[in-house]
């Protein structure tokens, strides 16, 4: 990771980008949200497994590292979701089709983004981690709370940013959510 100078203006611009993204998604303005996505998007939600602690690693942070639990594109496991620009475009378009029964009536969501940390400023992109809570309510059903961390690469674009890579690490022990088909 290269050293860079974090300025209040940079921090504010990134946070404002995430707040705009959350507002667009919660307002169901998926087409406008999709404009925030880069054409080379890589969007991954790795599955998590329960890994036993290796006693040989005692005294080492790797012993209990979250990275050991993740099964994504680079591991032998299977991610929950792994999508690119085209798949996301289809999902956005499907939300506005008459036969989109899975979202009728549409769910009510509220996203809270916090702990936004800029890790690196590399050439034309930023490496960022942030935490989120996503409240999900559907009329006639229970309410659910999704929580996790997003690991993003934002590409600088015309005074704003585009999401080039997003890895969503969900915090769950058992998947008992009604859907994982949300935009996190």
UniProtKB/TrEMBL annotation:
Pathway: Aromatic compound metabolism. It comes from the Bacteria. Gene3D superfamilies: 3.10.450.50. Pfam families: Ring_hydroxyl_B. InterPro entries: NTF2-like_dom_sf, Rng_hydr_dOase-bsu. Keywords: Aromatic hydrocarbons catabolism, Dioxygenase, Oxidoreductase. Belongs to the bacterial ring-hydroxylating dioxygenase beta subunit family. This is Uncharacterized protein. It comes from Candidatus Seongchinamella marina. The lineage of its organism: Bacteria, Pseudomonadati, Pseudomonadota, Gammaproteobacteria, Cellvibrionales.
């Amino acid at each position: 990771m290269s050293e860079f100078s974090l300025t209040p203006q940079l921090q504010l611009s990134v946070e404002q980008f995430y707040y705009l993204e959350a507002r667009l998604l919660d307002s169901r303005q998926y087409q406008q949200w999709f404009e925030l996505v880069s054409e080379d998007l890589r969007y991954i939600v790795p599955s998590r497994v329960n890994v036993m602690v290796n006693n040989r690693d005692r005294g080492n942070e790797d012993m209990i590292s979250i990275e050991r639990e993740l099964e994504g594109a680079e591991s032998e496991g299977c991610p929950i979701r792994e999508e690119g620009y085209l798949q996301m475009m289809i999902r956005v378009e499907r939300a506005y089709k008459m036969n989109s029964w899975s979202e009728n009536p549409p769910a009510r969501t509220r996203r809270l983004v916090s702990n936004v940390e800029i890790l690196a400023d590399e050439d034309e992109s930023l490496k960022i981690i942030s935490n989120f809570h996503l409240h999900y309510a559907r009329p006639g059903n229970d309410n659910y709370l999704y929580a996790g961390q997003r690991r993003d690469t934002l590409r600088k674009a015309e005074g704003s940013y585009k999401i080039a890579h997003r890895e969503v690490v969900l915090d769950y022990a058992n998947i008992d959510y009604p859907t994982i088909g949300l935009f996190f």
